[in-house]
Structure formats: structure tokens, C-alpha cells
Amino acid sequence: QSVLTQPPSVSAAPGQKVTISCSGSSSNIGNNYVSWYQQLPGTAPKLLIYENDKRPSGIPDRFSGSKSGTSATLGITGLQTGDEADYHCATWDSSLSAHVFGTGTKVTVL
Amino acid sequence: QLQLQESGPGLVKPSETLSLTCIVSGGSISSSSYYWAWVRQPPGQGLQWIGSIYYSGTTYYNPFLKSRVTISVDTSRNQFSLKLNSVTAADTSVYYCMRHTTHGAMDVWGQGTTVTVSS
């Protein structure tokens, strides 16, 4: 049912950088704000990025967000073992009139 | 610090109605800046938005679930509720309540509650 596509998994060594893509269309990402969520195993999602590139207070600047056209990207630098989690993008879809989530990406720290 | 806590039965029989409540503490549900919502996550799968409500009672629902969903708010008790009727095994999920802004930033989440649909 998801209209936002993410890679199933990404991995990198500690200290390295990973990027996670979120691909959509003009009815969702192309014309609405994107947010990103971190979900540690067995826990609720946590807001990492909102309105495409803003970080809530308490979120380190190792996490960054960007948007271009109908795609968005989450970047994580200085990768730590504590960053191992599932990451989800989300936005509003104007055609569906619904909040939609991405397929989710599992980050593994090698 | 705002906190959300889901409550309700962990087991529901097929064809019956799933009912959950989210108690809001540490802040008012009547804030004009936020919506209150339900999201679910089937085992091993991604997140699915179910619906949202404003403190005034205005609601909007996922079109794929709209025919079976009712979300209501009780400002006197600072809580909101979810009813999902005619459930099947496909409704087995972890159900989360959360708060979001008008721009869709989902900034406060409950811990989640597991609901299993089984006879």
C-alpha cells in the first residue's frame, strides 16, 4: 500500500556515513513536507527530521534531511552502533488525502 | 513533558470491534496547534496511518480504512479513542497513538500496544 519507496537496508562501518532515499511523486513528496523517524527495536518511532530538513531539539546534527523534486534523503554521519534501527519517511499525499509512510529502511552498523 | 499512553484489550475476536484509548498527560489535548492520531504496524511491516482528530472533533481517515474506523475525542478526560469494526487477522498490529502538527510532523508517540485478532 505504501506510495513511498525506500531501500530495504543500508549498512556501513562505525564512523562512516549512510544515506537513505525516499522516492515518491508530485502528489506527495513533490508538494508536501517530509519527515523522518527512527525506530529502535521494540520501541515506538521517534521524530528525527521534520519539514524536510529541520531537527527537533535534542537530535544531533549527525542527522540531516533534504528534499529535491519527488525524492527526499536522510543522511547519518559518524555512524554509531546505537544508530542501528529502522528508519521511516513520511509525508502527506494530496491525491489520497492521507498521511503516508515509506517502506522503511534497516540500518546496520558493520 | 507530554506523554501518551494507549490502553485496551490485547485480544479481539474476528468480526468484532477493536477499541483503544489514548490518555494524554503532561499537556492539554485542546492545544490549537496539534492533531491527535492513530498509526499501526503489522508484525514485521511498515507503519500505516489510521486517522487523525482535532480537539474540536474534526476527523480525517485513511481512505483504505475509512469505512471501518471511528476516532473520537474527550477533552474533559484529555483522551482520544479508536474504534475499528469488523476486524480480521489482517488487523493484528502494534497500535500507536501520537500527536502531529498541521505540517505532519509526528513529534510525540505512545509506547504502542499489541492487538491480536484471533478466535
Q: Judging from the principal axes of the Cα atoms, what is the shape of chain B?
A: globular
Radius of gyration of chain B: 13 Å
Largest sheet of chain A: 6 strands, mixed
Helix/sheet category of chain A: mainly beta
What would the average pLDDT of chain A be, to the nearest integer? 97
Content-based structural category of chain B: mainly beta
| Separate helix tally of chain B | 0
Let me know the number of strands of chain A.
9
Poorly predicted spans of chain B: none
What can you see in these coordinates?
The complex is a heterodimer of chains A (110) and B (119). Chain A is 0% helix and 45% strand. Chain A is built from no helices and nine strands. In chain A, the strands form two sheets. In chain A, strands 1, 3, 4, 7, 8 and 9 form a six-stranded mixed beta sheet that branches. Chain A has a three-stranded antiparallel beta sheet with strand order 2-6-5, with no helix packed on it. Chain B is 0% helix and 52% strand. Chain B has strands spanning 3-7, 11-12, 18-25, 34-41, 48-53, 59-61, 69-74, 79-84, 93-101, 106-109, 113-117. In chain B, the strands form two sheets. In chain B, strands 2, 4, 5, 6, 9, 10 and 11 form a seven-stranded mixed beta sheet that branches. In chain B, strands 1-3-8-7 form a four-stranded antiparallel beta sheet, with no helix packed on it. In chain B, strand 7 (69-74) and strand 8 form a beta hairpin. The relative contact order of chain B is 0.32. Classes of the chains: A mainly beta (110), B mainly beta (119).
Précis, in short:
Chain A has no helices and nine strands.
Summarize the SSE layout with pairings:
The complex is a heterodimer of chains A (110) and B (119).
Chain A: E1 9-12, E2 18-23, E3 34-39, E4 46-49, E5 63-68, E6 71-76, E7 85-93, E8 98-101, E9 105-109
Parallel strand pairs in A: 1-9
Antiparallel strand pairs in A: 2-6, 3-4, 3-7, 5-6, 7-8, 7-9
Chain B: E1 3-7, E2 11-12, E3 18-25, E4 34-41, E5 48-53, E6 59-61, E7 69-74, E8 79-84, E9 93-101, E10 106-109, E11 113-117
Parallel strand pairs in B: 2-11
Antiparallel strand pairs in B: 1-3, 3-8, 4-5, 4-9, 5-6, 7-8, 9-10, 9-11
